[in-house]
Specification:
215 residues; alpha+beta; seven-stranded mixed beta sheet; 4 helices; 22% helix; Protein PHYLLO, chloroplastic; isochorismate synthase activity; MenF-like
């Protein structure tokens, strides 16, 4: 639970699902878990729910990122390599250091929009129970109100927690989905579900379109 003068996050839970045999099975496992949640929604008016499942290391974040459409209705999409010494694309295919793919924003923190209080508001949604959750984003970047363009502005920032994330380690990959809601100042639980489903729909469509792609 996180607390400050403006907002109380009533629940912050990470649920680990049984390991999946493939990335597709992992997606279906998370989809089923969220479907069950829709029929038994939490009573809390604000919170963070994270579902995660281990998938085989053959699931490659870079491949998943590259297969997404260039014009996407889901914002943002990103790929980050964890390699810090002589980074190359080739290294991602040698089962050494891997990367992170993320799509959509469960919640975003900026200096001007979305969450009042700016960067300090991140602590409301990242408690001791969410140590596996990471934020990604940019410093000195300012988005316009509809997120269609950016410009450099010192002191500005845009950080977010992805809706869907594939985090590759050397021996395993972790697929995760995160739902964040707050009836008072962010979005309702139903709106959080809708945003997650939009991101999931896109990755599933791409996955089934590219049936022969090996992740």
């Amino acid at each position: 639970m996180g607390r400050d003068d403006d907002l109380v996050v009533e629940t912050c839970i990470t649920r680990t699902l049984p390991p999946a045999l493939t990335l597709e099975h992992g997606l279906q496992s998370i989809k089923q878990a969220v479907e069950e949640l829709k029929f038994n929604p939490p009573c809390a008016s604000s919170g963070v729910l994270r579902f995660q499942v281990a998938v085989p290391p053959s699931a490659k974040a870079l491949n998943w990122f590259c297969s997404q459409p260039e014009s996407s209705a889901v914002f943002p999409m990103f790929f980050l390599s964890k390699e810090t010494i002589s980074p190359t694309c080739k290294s991602l295919y040698l089962n050494k250091v891997r990367g992170v793919f993320g799509i959509g924003a469960a919640i975003s923190f900026t200096s001007s929009i979305c969450i009042p209080g700016g960067l300090s508001s991140t602590k409301r949604f990242l408690s001791n129970d969410s140590v596996l959750m990471s934020t990604y984003g940019f410093l000195d970047i300012n988005f316009n109100t509809d997120l269609s363009s950016v410009k450099h502005k010192a002191g500005s920032f845009y950080f977010f927690i992805p809706l869907i994330e594939l985090d590759e380690h050397e021996d395993i990959s972790i697929l995760a989905a995160t739902l964040v809601w707050s009836d008072s100042c962010l979005c309702t639980f139903e709106q959080a579900i809708h945003s997650y489903e939009s991101a999931l729909y896109q990755v599933l469509i791409i996955f089934h379109t590219l049936q022969c792609v090996v992740f």
